[in-house]
Amino acid sequence: MFSYDLAILREVIQKMAGIEVSEEMTNDQLLAMCGGELLRQEVVLRFVEATVAYAMLICTFYYYYYYYCCSVGNVSFIKCR
Q1: CA atoms within 13 A on the CB side of 3
Q2: What is the total count of domains within the chain?
Q3: Cβ(55)–Cβ(48) below 8 Å
Q4: DSSP 18
Q5: Is residue 53 part of a domain?
Q6: CB 4 within 8 A of CB 11
Q7: With contact defined as beta carbons under 8 Å apart, do 35 and 28 qualify?
Q8: What is the pLDDT along the chain (81 residues), one digit of tens a residue?
């Protein structure tokens, strides 16, 4: 009974997400689904952009935290000049 419920839940999620599962694909079909060089470049570009944005967010946080600690006098682990 439990595996039947999981199978139905999987089917509902796939239908709601618009995902088609094909269990038997040829090598040509797999290669076609992988995307081309342009898609790979876009993925790498988006990854780099996300990584840079995250690094900027962390730096901004530490910048403001440093000045907040200096303004309230709590410099327990950050030394102000």
Answers
A1: 0
A2: 1
A3: no
A4: T
A5: yes
A6: no
A7: no
A8: 568 888 888 888 888 888 777 778 888 877 777 778 888 888 888 989 999 888 888 888 888 877 777 776 655 555 544
Q: Which two tokens stand for residue 66?
A: 């440093």
Confirm if 75 and 69 have CB atoms less than 8 A apart. Answer: yes
Amino acid at 67: Y
pLDDT of residue 41: 86
In sign, the C-alpha dihedral spanning 30, 25, 29, 20 is: negative
How many other β-carbons are positioned within 10 Å of the β-carbon of residue 3?
Answer: 7
Structural domain including 22 reads 2-72
Three-state SS at 77: coil
pLDDT at 81: 46
The C-alpha atoms of residue 54 and residue 48 are separated, in whole angstroms, by: 10
- C-alpha distances (whole Å) from 24 to each of 10, 21, 27, 29 are 18, 9, 10, 10
